[in-house]
From TrEMBL:
Organism: Novacetimonas maltaceti
Gene Ontology biological process terms, A to Z: regulation of DNA-templated transcription
PANTHER family assigned: BIOFILM ARCHITECTURE MAINTENANCE PROTEIN MBAA (PTHR44757:SF2), DIGUANYLATE CYCLASE DGCP (PTHR44757)
Keyword presence, Hydrolase: yes
GO molecular function, one term: cyclic-guanylate-specific phosphodiesterase activity
EC numbers: 3.1.4.52
Keyword annotations of the record: Hydrolase
Domain EAL as annotated: residue spans: 467-721
PROSITE patterns, A to Z: EAL, GGDEF, PAS
Residue ranges of domain GGDEF in the record: 326-458
Alphabetical list of Pfam families matching this protein: EAL, GGDEF, PAS_9
Ranges for domain PAS: 16-55
Protein known as: Oxygen sensor protein DosP
Amino acid sequence: MTTYTHSPDLQFSDLALQHVPEAVVLINDRNDIVFYNDAAQRLWGLPRDEVMGQNVRCLVPVAYRADHDGFIARHREAGSHHNVGTTRDVEFVNASGEVRRGRLSLSQVVRPGLPGIFYMGIMTDVTQERHAESILQLRNDLLRSLTTEKLPLDQSGQFLCQRIENTVSDCCVVLLHPGGRDGRMDVTSTTTLPRRMRNALATCVPDAAAVAAMKDNPAVAADLAWTRHAVLARSFGFDSCVAAPITTHDGTPAGILAIYLRDSSVRDWAVDVMKAATPFCTLALGRDAARQRISELSERDTLTGLLNRSSLNRYIETMTSDRQDAVFTVMVINIDSFRDINNALGHIHADNFLREVAVRLQKLSAGRFIISRSSGDEFIVVVPNCPRALAMDQATRIIRMIAEPIEVDDSAITLSVSIGIACFPDDGPDGESLLGHADVALQQAKNEGRGTYKFADSSKNRLAQDRLLLGSALHETVSKGLLHLYYQPQIDTMTGELYGVEALARWHHPHLGNIFPSRFIAVAEETGQIAAIGRWSLQEACRQMAQWDREGIHVPTVAVNLSAAHFGDHSVPEYIAGLLRTYDLTPDRLTVEITENVMMESGKTTHDVLQAIRNIGVGLSMDDFGTGYSSLSRLTRLPLTEIKIDRSFINDFEHDTNAQAVTTAVIGIGNRLGMTVVTEGVETVQQRQLLEDLKCDVMQGYLFAKPLPADELEKWIRTREAGEA
């Protein structure tokens, strides 16, 4: 508490306070102003004779006036003085409509000879100090955002607008810059910009003269941002706008920064903020233009302006992945004998030839084709919606157009080109395969006389296509269900009961349809993908067995084919053991099938892996026995539990005595070695009867059932059980 004493009288002290640089206001116990110095007059802009004797609320910000007397009364009655002796910052609008910021401190005063408690407020004008701090903080934030975060223009522009809106009260900030369709402006702002206002600004197409005029007359920016849209802006509560052109380093207008205000009292402050922010807008637009230029240069061939090879690959990738029902053609075009042109005429004329070829291809395209210069004298044209029949016409047109003479130093030179053509999807599922096949076709065209075109040979490309398809499919097997297991029943010859099932991989491609195992398994082995198929088959077969157990469907055992690649991998036995534990299956429920080639090529590693699998208790079956050249001595050294006689011996089993003799011998060998003998390919009742007579253990074939999906096998089993019951 400050006791305001005077000696020798009050007039002397009041005179001393009258000329201090801070605004001083004194109120009595009725909240009336009894002292108001010169600095207070300058700060509030109200003369002394209009203030003296008035309630102090005339100096209080409008939002707090109604409650101010009650606030002071509560403090007087409660004796609370927590605001006395402290300072706080306040913001108010003076008589001239200017927003001022002051630092207020309050003191409780006793005036000798006068009753009641007086309050004295001392206000220091900190408007400029606060403005400077706000602008400094704004600059720091914008600089940090633009130099460290490296956001794209839409995000950095939104941040810039948001920070200005946080600095200037009750406003909406917009960054306008070229880049919209049909010469329209791009609009960057925060969500505070009303949608209709955004649409109106976005449809604005400033004429070139108006944009150029901004360089010498910044007021043109306000015309573009405000005058043309004032009626609409006022409907959203905006009463004015400050705007400035954003220019490049050489002064060329590159955009407009506009601050739409709902309170004109902050206009001067908004102008100051706009001046501080404009250089950062220039930086943001310049960086975005540089990024676009770099991106354009990275996507274009510098000589012809056509797409480069990497950009073309992205287009083709999009066409093959997003438009799977599309049919399009890829043409690889090469200028015949271009080296001779280069040597005879020099690089300058040769470059002119390449530019002319690019121009002619673009003219022929009329904007419909995707055109690229992929290297020296090679161009690539992608023709959308172009099946094979139309591709011939397009190739012929290209050859004829480029063959038209080109004038060089008063001489007419005629070019010829050779073209290799590949069609999607017939010649490949993706850009890599299509371009590879088109390259091969191009070489064929050159070898056969040049100046012509050749299509990719689908039969020669099938294996490469399969490799690519399979490589993609294996990665998508689980997520997209491109690979499935079918199950073919195996029947106990003596009892007729279900002995087990053989799991067979099946592949249905969404566009190529069903692909036979003979087609994709061989490719999988050649590309090293068979290991992935085998592990997936083991896991899926075990999972399905566990599901059948839960559903009360009894399948005694499942046989899964593995390739030679698995038996060179010491981790396979533990992988199998882990699956059995995971799905709670006993080892006798699983049989691993190997081909006779594994036995022929078996070394120590293969033998160790086979033995480790057998030690788990899992069965080992030799598939397709009799089709290779293995010796019986090797047969006895492997820990086999089962032999499968290849279907080739059963095809004409009823009439071929040699096949019957071999089958009889194999069954006898298997029985003597304690192995179960399974015969594949049983399709007739007569074949079944002969195998029963020969005491074959197990039969498998279309006579009993074809390979079935899991749900159809369940129905097959339930139907048999119902029939037996």
